[in-house]
Amino acid sequence: NDHTTPYAEIPRSYKIEISEGHLATVVADCIVYKYGVPKTHEINHFTFLKDEGKWQMLSVSFTVKPVPDDQKDFDLVIFARSYARAWGSKRANYVASYFSEQGSLQVNDAKPSLGRSEIAVTAQSFMTKFPDMNVRFDKLERTSKGIEFHWTLTGTDADPKGKGHKVKVSGYELWTLSDNGRIKVSMGNFPSDEYNRQLEFGI
Description:
By secondary structure, the protein is α+β, with helices and mostly antiparallel strands. It has 4 helices and 10 strands. It is globular and about 60 Å long.
């Protein structure tokens, strides 16, 4: 799966055959989702040759069929997983694309970022501070206030004025979704005191 795009490739099955220890074929059956909605059913065929102890790809071919309209059900978990990967993509516009055009993102008590352009600026500020940033999707919880998207961020502070420490902090975003399956409002929460302590002293 290419985590730098809003697509998520979900495997249904894999089949691996190895002939005489040096020729391998792999057949991967998967569904490709975009923003949590299944778009295509793909069957990928890979051929590998083992040369001097290392597997080298010889060829790849695939078939692609659109998912029927009556099967294009929105999957919130897949949406959340691909959204988390977007934060680690180093492409702030991909993060912003998960929001509706007039969506908003608020981080703790900061002023909300309104619209995709401002959301991209906010996302880029984290990507610049933590070039190796990874955001792990932990869980979703449905509450009376909305959907809680729980995450864990890890990264190394690259701010020239910082200490260069690694950080690991968990938090959540409280989501309200729009009718088209994008984030309308996100209110982010994480322990700022612990975050600042790790910036100063490390994990």
